[in-house]
Design goal:
Layout (H helix, E strand, L loop, with lengths): L3 H15 L4 E6 L20 E7 L2 E6 L3 E5 L4 E6 L9 E7 L4 E6 L7 E5 L7 H4 L10 H9 L5 H6 L9 H11 L12 H23 L29 E5 L4 E5 H4 L8 H7 L1
Antiparallel strand pairs: 1-6, 2-3, 3-4, 4-8, 5-7, 6-7, 9-10
Helix pairs in contact: 1-6, 3-6, 5-6
Bound molecules: zinc ion (ZN).
Zinc ion binds next to helix 7.
Length: 278
């Protein structure tokens, strides 16, 4: 799934192509494309796109009148659409403009979870945004200390919980823990001030690195092509200390880490799941 850096740069690419153009129509292609009914998506017709940005992993397209919030989920993409075919492959919704290409939301796979929400003034009023924590790259050291202090979750789980801190997914959670030299299973509420400072620096550095990488790409690349030290690198040497990268595998994701860098050499096993699921 794209995380905050990919979505941020995706918005930058779309800004170049669509800001300033006048909207002439919005067409949902699937029944589940549109997640809200008021205001109507046509309320933006006749207005020019004023900005395209993001909130965490959501893209936002603002016109003078209303805005559209888009979630790409796992395989969604939002791309200029020259052809405007009647049944585009994986098509979810389409925005039409006075001249030049349309903007097409597609989703690969069979899940059909990507969608569009429409808002009047700010996406903050929408349910999926209202329940988000602050964007990970905007959190100060003091805020991060407060967030961690209030949550006795494992660090890797906390970083992935969008309601606590938004924008990081499985890949960046692995990379942030490794950069911070903290165990992914560390109890967040027990981190001390130097740990919090390392964690903050790691979030900023990991997001910055991914943003810089993404800006070099013509379009969003697959997760495994994105930069990193540990994610999806089980068995490879740690670029910091040369120990091998280890994993704790779950059904839906894998925690990757370096024992030498992060756990004082201790090999992690997840007793909470292995007891019940094996
Ligand atoms: Zn290492």
């Amino acid at each position: 799934m794209p995380e905050l850096p990919e979505v941020k740069v995706h918005a930058e690419r779309l800004t170049a192509d669509f800001v300033g153009r006048t909207l002439t129509g919005f067409r949902p292609i699937t029944f589940t494309a549109l997640k809200t009914f008021d205001p109507a998506p046509e309320a933006g017709v006749g207005a020019a796109v004023t900005s395209i940005g993001h909130r965490a992993k959501f893209l936002r397209i603002d016109t003078g009148d209303i805005g559209y919030l888009v979630h790409l989920m796992q395989g969604g993409r939002l791309k200029p659409d020259e052809k405007q075919s009647a049944k585009p492959r994986g098509g979810i919704a389409r925005w039409l403009f006075d001249d030049g290409p349309a903007l097409l939301l597609t989703e690969s796979g069979t899940e059909r979870k990507a969608g569009v929400w429409v808002y009047r003034d700010s996406p903050d009023e929408l349910e999926p945004v209202a329940r988000l924590g602050p964007d990970a790259d905007t959190v100060s050291i003091d805020e991060l200390a407060k967030i961690c202090g209030a949550n006795s979750k494992r660090l890797h789980g906390l970083l992935r919980t969008q309601a606590i801190i938004a924008g990081l997914g499985r890949r960046l959670s692995n990379e942030v823990c490794h950069r911070a030299k903290l165990s992914p299973f560390a109890n967040a509420s027990k981190l001390d001030r130097p740990d919090i400072e390392s964690l903050h620096a790691a979030i900023v550095a990991a997001v910055d690195e991914s943003v810089a990488f993404e800006r070099e790409q013509d379009e969003m690349v697959k997760s495994k092509e994105r930069p990193g030290n540990v994610h999806h690198r089980t068995g490879e040497p740690c670029p910091v200390c040369d120990d091998q990268i280890r994993e704790v595998a779950y059904n839906r994701y894998t925690v990757n880490y370096c024992a030498t860098c992060q756990t004082g050499g201790k090999v992690l096993a997840d007793n909470t799941t292995s007891k019940f699921l094996k």
